[in-house]
């Protein structure tokens, strides 16, 4: 019989960084993991990905099928990463030191930092537009650069406060945000229902010239990119779940459910409203313009609370990754610093970059380099049968040397070489409006960067590991190992 977990901790500023969470503090439950994944994604920063297929020139049903296919496939591949931190009790980039080496795991920290940085900026950017737009229509607030700048700054400050308080506050907040946003989206079906049409919203035709290559682009950029955004984030939540109380199966099921619902619900709402508002070159502007007056207040509330919920989770993860890269920094200081960086990106997104091109290029390029890291981390998890030495994983954070994950100067050169190989293949086969890889000629113009990067990485790493066993602790914790 599963023992009852200890009482939930009170909300306060989280004291843990990337250190190993003590068993007494691992009070999380699988449903808490699902709750954070569901609640934190109920914002326009995720909704906007549902607009991308429409902006690519697809009609409604192909847009829907591309997102569902990509999200399902990505979830099944990414969700097992939550089990790594379930076993190690620390975040995923630090956990990857078991495979990449205690210094080589910096690859994961940098990837996680970039992913969270970009998505946090996107969330605040779209959320700010969802605040200024309704206020402009309701009260005549000027829809200009000053209004957006003040709104961005306010949302950034609120988001960083959520991130500083950390896990307990995010767990509680995500539940309310999830419920409120589901109600908002249900109301949105009525608000935009009479304007909805399934035909393409743009007269320019398919973005890549024909249906299947554009559909494939949508599958990766709008569908697969959602789960891939969590390749380094899942461990931030599952590390608080005790493997002595909950099985890997329950955590995996909760992670899958949270990712699928948390991504598909807002993205499909984004697709529906994009076709209703006929949003071609921009999403939030036409969304606000097409909204009936009564729907502006719910939209405004989501612009505030949905944004700080999602951006808070992402900034929290950024703080952990920077803390892992620069151990002398405390988690709070690292969180504040990364929030400043994301806010700078927000202003660049508003004043400098083109929305569609910037978002698409960002998700595709980071997917190309993030996929190889995730593949290697999962292979390492399978090879060691989920058995890790938590103390040895913390060697770099203590600015020490040695341990079973030291490899060669703290780097597993086999893992690093496989990651470089897979990343190179991915970048050479990616297709964006800003950059097209030369391998596209071999794939008929279809962006298969994710599949090619994953296959090249797995083949390279498995070949390099022939005759080289995965380091495993000499005396594993039997109680933890029993649940693998």
Automatic annotation (TrEMBL):
Q: Which GO terms describe its molecular function?
A: transmembrane transporter activity
The places in or outside the cell where this protein is found are: Membrane
Q: Output the Pfam families linked to this UniProt entry.
A: Transp_cyt_pur (PF02133)
Principal cellular location given in the protein's record: membrane
Which domain of life does the protein's organism represent? Bacteria
An annotated GO cellular component of this protein is: plasma membrane
Alphabetized, the UniProt keywords read:
Membrane, Transmembrane, Transmembrane helix, Transport
Which residue ranges does UniProt annotate as crossing the membrane? 33-54, 60-86, 106-130, 150-169, 176-192, 212-231, 251-275, 295-320, 332-353, 359-382, 403-428, 448-466
Membrane-topology annotation of the record: Multi-pass membrane protein
Q: Which PANTHER family does this UniProt record tie to the protein?
A: PURINE-CYTOSINE PERMEASE FCY2-RELATED
The similarity annotation says: Belongs to the purine-cytosine permease (2.A.39) family.
Q: What is this protein called?
A: Cytosine permease
């Amino acid at each position: 019989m599963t023992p009852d977990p200890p009482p939930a901790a009170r909300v306060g500023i989280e004291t843990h960084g990337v250190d190993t969470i003590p068993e007494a503090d691992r009070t999380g439950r699988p449903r808490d993991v699902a709750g954070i994944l569901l609640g934190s994604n109920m914002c326009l920063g995720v909704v906007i990905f549902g607009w991308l297929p429409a902006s690519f020139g697809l009609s409604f049903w192909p847009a829907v099928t591309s997102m569902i296919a990509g999200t399902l496939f990505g979830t099944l591949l990414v969700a097992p990463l939550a089990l790594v931190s379930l076993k190690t009790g620390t975040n995923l980039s630090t956990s990857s030191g078991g495979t990449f080496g205690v210094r080589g795991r910096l690859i994961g920290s940098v990837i996680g930092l970039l992913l969270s940085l970009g998505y946090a900026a996107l969330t605040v950017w779209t959320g700010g537009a969802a605040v200024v737009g309704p206020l402009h229509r309701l009260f005549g607030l000027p829809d200009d650069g000053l209004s957006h700048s003040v709104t961005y700054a306010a949302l950034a400050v609120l988001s960083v406060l959520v991130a500083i308080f950390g896990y307990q506050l995010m767990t509680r907040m995500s539940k309310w945000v999830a419920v409120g946003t589901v109600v908002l989206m249900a109301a949105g079906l009525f608000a935009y229902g009479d304007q909805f049409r399934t035909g393409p919203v743009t007269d320019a035709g398919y973005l890549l010239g024909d249906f299947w290559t554009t559909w494939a682009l949508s599958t990766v950029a709008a569908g697969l990119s959602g789960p891939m955004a969590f390749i380094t984030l899942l461990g931030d939540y599952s590390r608080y779940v005790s493997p002595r109380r909950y099985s890997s199966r329950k955590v995996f099921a909760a992670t899958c459910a949270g990712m699928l619902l948390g991504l598909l619900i807002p993205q499909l709402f984004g697709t529906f409203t994009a076709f209703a508002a006929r949003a071609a070159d921009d999403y939030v502007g036409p969304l606000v313009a097409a909204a009936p007056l009564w729907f502006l207040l719910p939209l405004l509330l989501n612009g505030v609370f949905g944004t700080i919920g999602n951006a808070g989770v992402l900034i929290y993860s950024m703080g952990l990754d920077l803390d892992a890269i620069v151990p002398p920094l405390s988690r709070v200081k690292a969180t504040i610093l990364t929030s400043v960086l994301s806010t700078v990106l927000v202003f660049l997104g508003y004043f400098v970059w083109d929305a569609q091109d910037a978002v698409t290029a960002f998700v595709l390029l980071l997917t190309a380099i993030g996929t190889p890291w995730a593949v290697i981390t999962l292979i390492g998890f399978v090879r060691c049968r989920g058995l890790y030495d938590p103390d040895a994983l913390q060697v770099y954070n203590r600015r020490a040397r040695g341990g079973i994950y030291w490899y060669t100067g703290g780097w597993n050169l086999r893992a690093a070489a496989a990651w470089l190989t897979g990343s190179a293949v991915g970048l050479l086969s990616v297709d964006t409006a800003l950059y097209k890889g030369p391998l596209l000629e071999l794939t008929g113009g279809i962006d298969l960067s994710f599949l090619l990067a994953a296959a090249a990485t797995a083949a390279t790493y498995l070949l390099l590991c022939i005759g080289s066993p995965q380091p495993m602790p000499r005396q594993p914790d039997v109680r933890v190992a029993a649940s693998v």
